[in-house]
Specification:
With 157 residues, this protein is an alpha+beta fold. The chain is built from four helices and seven strands. The longest helix is centred in the middle third of the chain and has 15 residues, at 87-101. The structure holds coenzyme A (COA). The site of coenzyme A has 20 residues, from β4, α3 and α4.
């Protein structure tokens, strides 16, 4: 089996990123971003992209940003065909390492209540620090709360 690589990337990888985006998110929750949202975010000061590659193909990505000493994981997704093998955890570790290198003291992220990704974040020592009601609105009109999770840039050992 080919090795998993986690790489620094830029907007030239958006074709691969959007292919994962389209497959990774259930449209009923309204969490996925458009290509324009991804491209626009990557133009913001302090924003960066990591891609996960298996056998050359992009199978996951993380989009993040640092403002002052706070880094935010804005988007994390892994192709359904590559899940459950630690790709998400590796992207999350790389996000934390890059944030530390760029001078972050704290890490933040926002996730829909009920998203199975919460388990991944809990295992990486993120804890809930806030909640926004009805933040996500799906195609069927149903809404879900967003949970804000945070942790210090260095995970406890
Ligand atoms: C969340 C996500 C990135 C995890 O990717 P992954 O490569 O499968 O993650 P890992 O293999 O490192 O393991 C993730 C852990 O969370 C659990 N998990 C993550 N996503 C899950 C899912 N969709 N269904 C069930 N369990 C899931 C796994 O069981 C695993 O926990 P365990 O090892 O204790 O069993 C991936 O499921 C995904 O792309 N989801 C859709 C996009 C999304 O919701 N992103 C997060 C919000 S921005």
């Amino acid at each position: 089996m080919s090795a998993l690589l986690i790489e620094d990337a830029d907007a030239r990888e958006l074709d691969g990123v959007m292919a994962v985006m389209e497959r990774a998110f259930d449209p009923c929750f309204g969490e996925a971003w458009t290509r324009g949202q991804c491209a626009g975010t990557l133009l913001l000061p302090g924003a960066w992209l990591h891609v996960a590659r298996l056998g050359g193909a992009v199978v996951g990505f993380a989009i993040a940003r640092i403002v002052l000493d706070e880094a935010e994981l804005m988007m994390l997704a892994v192709d359904p065909s590559a899940r459950g093998r630690g790709v998400g955890a590796r992207l999350l570790d790389r996000f934390a390492a890059t944030a530390a290198r760029r001078g972050a003291a704290r890490l933040h992220l926002e996730v829909r209540e009920g998203n199975p990704a919460l388990r991944l974040y809990a295992r990486a020592h993120f804890a809930s620090v806030g909640r926004r009601e009805a933040y996500y609105r799906g195609r069927d009109g149903r809404s879900s709360a967003a949970l804000t999770l945070a942790r210090a840039v260095e995970a406890p050992r």
